Amino acid sequence: MLGNGRDWWQVPRPVAPVLDVDSLMKAYPKQRALDGVSLTIEAGEIFALLGPNGAGKTTLIGAVCGLVRKTSGTVKVFGIDLDVDPVTPRYQMGLVPQEINFDPFFTVRESLRIQQGYFGVAPDLARIDELLEALALTSKADQPTRALSGGMKRRLLIAKALVHRPRLVFLDEPTAGVDVELRRDLWAYVRKLRAEGTTVVLTTHYLEEAEELADRVGIIDQGKLLLVEEKTALMKRLGERHVKVRFASKVAALPAALEGTLSTDGLSYAFVEQPAVGPRAAEVLQRIFSAGLPVADVSTGSAKLEDILLRVLKQGKAAT
Amino acid sequence: MNLIGARTLLGKEVRRFLRVPGQTVLQPLISTSLYFVVFGYTLGGRQAQVEGVPYVQYIVPGLVFLGVANNAFLNASSSFFITKIQGTIVDLLVAPLGATELLFGFISGAMVRGLLVGLLTWVVALFFTGAHLVNVFETALFLGLSAYVFSVLGLLAGIWAEKFEQINFFPTFLMLPLTFLGGVFYSVRGLPEPFRTISLFNPVVHMVEGLRAGMLGLEHSSPVGLALLVTLALAATALAWTMLRNGYRIKS
Q1: Buried residues in A222-234 as b, exposed as e (16+ CB within 10 A)
Q2: How many CA atoms lie within 13 A of A89 on its CB side?
Q3: Residue of A264, A279, A271 lying closest to A298 (CA atoms)
Q4: Residue B148: which H helix or E strand, with range?
Q5: Mean pLDDT score, A199-223
Q6: Residues 153 to 192 of A: which have CB under 8 A from any B CB?
Q7: Does the pTM exceed 0.80?
Q8: Range with lowest mean pLDDT among A219-223, B103-107, B220-224
Q9: Which of the residues A172, A221, B50, B139 could staple to B214 if both were Cys, CB 3.0 to 4.6 A apart?
Q10: What is the mean pLDDT of residues A234-239?
């Protein structure tokens, strides 16, 4: 009996993170692709890993998925240290690799069936049909994979990564080369996966994609993880708001108390609201109207994830 | 062990070569049959006798071996190498397939192709020489060992090679001399010294002699030769398993 009046089996077991990376290092002869990366990913979240080309995103995913031999550090998946047991966690993992690959000897349906088998899953034709439907590949199911377009091949990679119903999925640039309509369908499918409890780690060059899908964002550059934060908190903390005002006639000068910039022709005004610093956009607009300036049009906009990414990367470079 | 995974890989390997039967089965069958016609008939093989057996009949075990060894080697080496080149190795590395499952899938797939071509070569030979199978167990043992050893060697080549030039190196510079100097078309027992003794270090000699013993009842396979083949099989398997486990030339 424990001191709190409960027996030991009644104490809820701490749930291990789905992915726990600690001090991960990958060194090549001339560079460090990963330089002491530590990261924890919880069950059921969509985590977007962002960074420029060569930042270490794919190396990090590769080290977790068994494609890259790490130099040092530990990786635990579902609480299992991959140094101790590299195979068991893989039954529950899926990967959409960045590079398109396909086996020209097989049809789309055969490729999916083979992939199911690799993961120790007995034939589940209903699952294959479901994925073919979700990824708009049903009409190509019995075509050889070499007959698919680039976008279709990428969708096939997504289907292959999901065909064994993994609990942890890595999507490394999953929508590169996929048209806009299908990209949005894929986003809906990723949200459905999360709703079913699947954890998704995503890298993408379409920052709109990360903005749309991610619960948390990690920014990596030169092998170092610069930032990990909830996406909404990050955008609130670092996201600026822009205010643009067009005047009906030329304005000679701004009122003294008004921050912002008047254009040289005196016909427009711009203000950037810094998070938690200086006046808010609403206050600025109020002052403009109070001053009786000849306002013709007002537009506002928020900073995109892209702006935040660029700023964090710039700060990271300045710090090194 | 991931039994479904290993079985799936075997099934995929077999279906892969059966998708192109002209290239993987018919072509080697034709070339081996041509050896049979040229060496057994047109070069006076019909009249000649070796160890009391018509030459045309004497070379059948060697030609069956040639079909088995070449095709087992080529299947394993090209399949693994192409898997690396076209990037589908990722599918295998991400999946819960350990070194044992990968070994099983690639080796057994290659053995199926090698044994299939060997069997068809023997069927073709039946039309020329009639059926000769003195000892089924001995024949099966040496066929199986030959197919296994060359499948593992092929897999080693596929793992090691990083360029097409490297993968093409083995058939020309390793397989061809080993097989042609391995007594496929002659008896190494009749060679003058020191070539006879040197030849006995060539494992192909013991494979071919074992097959001749099983199929024709000639030249009893020596226990030393058998031990050499088993040792070679075990050493090659251990090396391939270690390379796969460590991701040698597979993982970055």
Answers
A1: bbbbbbbbebeeb
A2: 23
A3: A271
A4: helix B136-160
A5: 87
A6: 160
A7: yes
A8: B220-224
A9: B139
A10: 70
